[in-house]
Amino acid sequence: MNSLPEQIAATSFIAIHVPFFAIIFWLGFNENTRVKEWSRIVFAIFLIVHAGLHKRLENHPLYTFNSPLSQGLIFGAGLFGLLFLIVTYISNNHNPDYDNRPQM
């Protein structure tokens, strides 16, 4: 995207995120329980990795996600992803019937 004008590159970069988020969000409400659970876990992991990548690249000269809004969205989402995984792990370990659920 370096060869594109800055405004087009920024808009394109943001737009690339939309289909991925939409698909994962849609899968998170799937009727199949296993699909729903795993897509939510994958989404939470993505949010954590996404925040980690932004943190790793924050000192790069072309990094422009420095506004409070961008930082809040990126790192807030990563934090919520981590909290979701922790709560899911704790819930599953305290639910004796978790592994005995009917499969769909």
Q: Could you tell me how far the N terminus lies from the C terminus, measured between alpha carbons in angstroms?
A: 43 Å
Rg over CA atoms, rounded to whole Å, is 17 Å
Number of helices: 3
Low-pLDDT ranges: none
Order of H and E elements: HHH
Structural class: mainly alpha
**Tally of DSSP β-strands:** 0
Helicity range: over 70%
For the biggest sheet, the summary is:
none
Estimate the mean pLDDT confidence. 85
**Percent range for β-strand residues:** under 5%
| Shape call | elongated
So what's the oligomer here? single chain
Characterization of the model:
This protein has 104 residues and is mainly α. Helices cover 70% and strands 0% of the residues. It is built from three helices and no strands. It has helices at 6-27, 33-57, 68-93. α1 (6-27) runs antiparallel to α2 (33-57) and α2 (33-57) packs across α3. The longest helix has 26 residues, at 68-93. The radius of gyration is 17 Å and the shape is elongated. The mean pLDDT is 85.
Topology:
Elements: H1 6-27, H2 33-57, H3 68-93
Summarize the structure.
This protein is mainly α and 104 residues long. The chain has helices at 6-27, 33-57, 68-93.
List keywords for this structure.
mainly alpha; 104 residues; 3 helices
